[in-house]
Amino acid sequence: MIRLSIFLILLILVSPFSIAQDSLPKPTKLVIGLTEAPPFVVKEGNQFSGLSIDSWRLVNRSLDSDFSFKSYPSLEQLLSAVEHGEVDFSINPITVTDQRMERMDFTQPYFISYTGMARKSGSAFWTYISNIFSWNFLSAILILVGVIFIFGFLVWLFERKKNPEEFGSGGRGILQGFWWSAVTMTTVGYGDKSPRTFGGRFIGLIWMFMAIIMISTLTAGIASSLTVQNMQDEISDIQDLEKFGVTTVQSSSAQELLDQYKISSEAVLNAEAGIEALLENKTEVLVYDQPILNYIIEQKNLEDELEVLEKSLKKDYYSYTFPKDSPLLDSIDPILIGSLKSMEWINLIREYK
Known about the structure:
This protein has helices at residues 2-22, 51-63, 75-83, 98-101, 124-132, 135-159, 170-185, 198-226, 231-234, 253-260, 271-279, 290-299, 328-339, 343-352; strands at residues 30-34, 42-44, 47-49, 67-71, 89-95, 104-106, 111-120, 246-249, 266-268, 285-289, 306-308, 314-323. It has 14 helices and 12 strands. Helix 2 runs antiparallel to helix 14 and helix 6 (135-159) packs antiparallel against helix 8. The chain is α/β, with parallel strands linked by helices. It is a multi-pass membrane protein. It is found in: Membrane. Residues 1-20 form the signal peptide.
């Protein structure tokens, strides 16, 4: 009887504690890291919208979690925050790569994208005109003029005394030698001037054969500098980017790709900074996520100035990103997969495309 009384007393004392434990509030609200990446993450004031935000709201219908967004100025800072647990996870469109999988965990992909290339566009006419005044064209012309002058001068040295009527003295004679050299090189053959000395004819013979080789080489160089080439045709694989000035976004999967193939590039803070570099002629090609490039160019009404090439460099898979071994991954991943099969998500994808 005494034991029973003690048990009942203990039960009465412990029960309020148990009830209090059951009534404890849920864990503190989730902190989700973000950085601007339109159309997936668009920031207007303190409000966020976009396809990634919509995907999270679909997922959170099932989780019913309290959450807040924490914004970072760059992708590099966001990835560092996720890796070091400053945020619970990120819903940004972050591409899954081998290097990132060593540092962080990922959900199943919620969007398939491509690494694309943007460049400054312009009319073929103005491109042709600008090429005429380019250094490549001018240097080819200067080399051609220099070689013509050298052989004309050599012939003049032999002919100036024994053939003064055709190759006079002084500056006038040098110009006559230049004229002969140009006529000989182009095989026009006016016949108004011809070397008569052994030395002059020997130089002329060398020049005739050399001119055949040199004129074809220099003509090809001049034609190449004037040709309005389409970058779309010039880039058949990623190694072709070595011929251009390339810019990409710092710490992006595009930068990882370029570094992997040892393609020299300039890194900027975000896609908007890369677009500005294109507009200001600070770079020739911006390599980054294709849908983001398309969206920014369209939103800024830059279709007449910039274009995204049809060719892409690789396929990308966007996923939510978590610190390594985060327990949240196992609860969020299945819900995300289920939401991707809903008609609402399919309609959202169509809207953003």
